[in-house]
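Exercise: predict the fold of this chain.
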Amino acid sequence: MKKKLALALAVVMVMGAVLTGCGGKGGKLTFTTGSESGTYYGFGTVLAGQISDKTKTTVTAVVGKGSKGNIEAMNVKDAQLGFVQSDVMAYAYNGERLFEENKIDSFSTVAALYMEQVQIITLDPSIKSVADLKGKSVSVGESGSGVYFNAVDVLSAYGLDVEKDIKPTYQGFGDSTDALQDGKIDAAFVVAGAPTPAVTALAASRDVYVVELDDEHIDKLIADSPYYSKYVISADTYKMDADATTVAVGAVIIARDDCSEDDIYNVISGIYDSIDTLGHDKKAELDLDFAASITAVPYHPGAAKYFTEKGLTVPTK
């Protein structure tokens, strides 16, 4: 009887490992990304394919709802990996802002991959500064999203209130660029690695402008929210007349804490040991020092093992 019970328990444990995809060597991990019109999905699909090809861990990239939705999906074990903004993952881990009533800290950092820019996109060349958005119809991202809070931060730095000083709409990247194309809104916040597919598609038929932030307000924004850093988007990104100065946050891969050390080691080694074979322009921005630069959320042991082998030390739980 005891042997049968032990066997049954062993079967349950194995099945649980298979279902969560965090069961040890050669696991199968689901990687939640973003919308098909964003950089998360495009780059995430490429990363998943390479990890699966180069290691014993199989990763499947799926469409996600962005940073907040990805963290929530991982928390209920619908996914084991996720793309997130560096600011949003800190909010979740610390129980702040959009996670104030629902703190989630069941995840760890795998690697910071690249910077994703706060792109305020418009087709109106008269809108040159954030201050010019006053009274305008502006998409500020989906309600409660990381993009929404980026919009709140940037507008606040200029003394503008999302609900009082602009006419906000709450749309994702694809819907926002469609609304710009149709003249339904004046500008849209798009927080993603540039070039972003939705904006690139818009720029193919229209002259696209990125609304700039000046140094004074960038300094104020960074002082209030240190997750941001100054960033210049080059003119050739969207065939613009000149470079555009804005701010950016980090794009980070996170993993559930219960994923095995071996699987997460495979995830990061599959990316960084073969950067040159990645079929995406974002590979040019991958850098090991930047990958190990996150301090807000500790790293997964599998990632820490990889960085140690490369002579880098990262914080762990």
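Check your answer against the key: Residues 29 and 136 are 43 Å apart (CA to CA).
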